[in-house]
Amino acid sequence: MTPSNGNGFPSNYAAARAAFMTAAAEAGARLYQYVHPSASAPDGGTLSCDVAVLGRADARKAFVAIAGTHGVEGPTGSMAHTALLRSKLPQLASDCRLVLVHAINPYGFACHSRTNENNVDLNRNFVDHSAPHPANVLYAAVHAIVCQSDYSHEQHARQIAALHEWTAEHGADARNQALIAGQYSHPSGKSYGGRRREWSNRVLQQITDEHLRGIEKIAFIDWHTGLGRYGEELLLCFNEPGSPEYRQCEQWWGRDRIGTQEGFDGARRPAYRGLLFHGLQRFVAPAQFAGVAVEFGILSNEAQEGIFMLDHWLRFGDHADVPAAILDDVRRQVREAFTPSDPAWRQSVVVRSHAVMEKALRGLQAW
Ligand SMILES: [Zn+2]
Questions:
Q1: E strand or H helix that includes residue 35
Q2: What is the whole-number distance in angstroms between the Cα of residue 150 and the centre of ligand 1?
Q3: Burial class (CB in 10 A: 0-12, 13-18, 19+), 214
Q4: Which residue from 26, 31, 151, 250 has the fewest beta carbons nearer than 10 Å?
Q5: DSSP-derived pairing of the beta strands 48-54 and 30-35
Q6: What pLDDT score does 90 carry?
Q7: How many angstroms separate the CA atoms of 311 and 303, rounded?
Q8: Are 212 and 64 in contact (CB under 8 A)?
Q9: What are the structural domain ranges in the chain?
Q10: d(CA 279, CA 204)
Q11: Is the peptide bond before 286 cis (omega within 30 degrees of 0)?
Q12: Average pLDDT, whole number, for the chain?
């Protein structure tokens, strides 16, 4: 098995996992496996969320990073974690611990899909499921456009045109609110947050209990690809603006980067529900928790929605009469969209992801 297909980016989940575990062992990290109790990889292989921990047991600060919240975006975070472990960077201050979480959504990673084994978008699952789930009335209006059971080039072009038309009429704010914010009414739909805590959600709390107990200050990164300029990082901070944690992020990564309004086609940032960021923030309380979701830009937002239509069709569509070559091509399109094979994109992401982590680690030492 080749561990990667260029610039340290793993070509699949099994290769990613192997490279991460090898790098962790060679760095002297302690490794913990959280094996999925029921789901398995398409090839029948084990699905596991793996955690590498470096640093002293009595550390008061921790750098925590998560790869694969959205499974299909997993190779980028995996590459970043493995590269960090291979670098000489973990010269941690004595009061800092490194906690790298690999493939928190292993099913999505292994299947090259955004969502998990229940089609839940893990990054919308951290709501209070004992309360009524938030309504997203706009989503119902676009569900039929983005989720179709048939596929052909013509059909796909019609869906994209229909979404374009809907956006032209209602605006990019409405499109983002409909398709990105999160919805809890359509289990086969886009950005579905689920009706209960998913396995990955519970595992994240277990990881917190086992590896972050007693920690007082946490610098956090959740790796994604999607929003922002091609090959460049876009930092989405979900700390309360003006809070001490938000100000830490400004110090570490720059005020302009943290305060950016980019990434949404000139529209406002959607009112996200159930983010992993906020779930983890609750799990680690009362620790101070400062951090960002790091996005690396790929396609335009509109083109990404086209790819999500394909992701949906692969999961739920009618494939009975579809030639294998077309199925393979659609799968390739989805993978390629979220981890472009373009060497320039990859080189940029290697350099920039390292720089983002370096700033966090330096900032954490001074905090
Ligand atoms: Zn993502």
A1: strand 30-35
A2: 25
A3: exposed
A4: 26
A5: antiparallel
A6: 58
A7: 13
A8: yes
A9: 13-139+181-298+343-366
A10: 9
A11: yes
A12: 94
Give distance in angstroms: CA of 71 to centre of ligand 1.
8
**The pair of three-digit structure tokens given for residue 58, joined into one six-digit string:** 């009595």
Task: Spell out the alpha helix ranges (H) of 171-275.
Answer: 172-179, 199-211, 244-253, 255-258
Give me the amino acid identity at 62. A
DSSP assigned state of 183: B
The pLDDT value recorded for residue 93 is 76
Q: How far is the CA of 8 from the centre of ligand 1 (A)?
A: 20
CA angle 327-80-216, nearest 5°? 125
Residue 324 Cα to ligand 1 middle (Å): 28
Q: Which residues are near ligand 1, the ion (C-beta closer than 5 Å)?
A: 70, 73, 224
Tokens of 71: 């499974």
172 Rama class: left (phi>0) / alpha (psi -120 to 50) / beta: alpha
Residues 55, 193: Cα–Cα separation, whole Å: 34
CA 300 – ligand 1 centroid, Å? 14
Helices (H) and strands (E) in the chain, counts: 13, 7
What kind of fold does domain 13-139+181-298+343-366 have according to CATH? Answer: Aminopeptidase (3.40.630)
Closest by CA position to 73, among listed 357, 307, 315, 360: 307
3-state helix, strand, coil in the chain (%, to 5): 45, 15, 40
Write the pLDDT tens digit of every residue in 299-317: 988 899 999 999 999 999 9
What secondary structure does DSSP assign to 261-327, as a single string?
Answer: -TTSTTSPPP---S-HHHHHHHHHTTSEEEEEEEEEE-S-HHHHHHHHHHHHHHHHS--TT--HHHH
* Helix, coil or strand: residue 73: helix
pLDDT digits (tens, 9 = 90+) for 49-107: 999 999 988 999 999 999 999 999 999 999 999 999 999 665 677 789 999 999 999 99
Residue that has been written with the tokens 């013509």 in this structure: 154
| Cβ proximity of 183 and 192 under 8 Å | yes
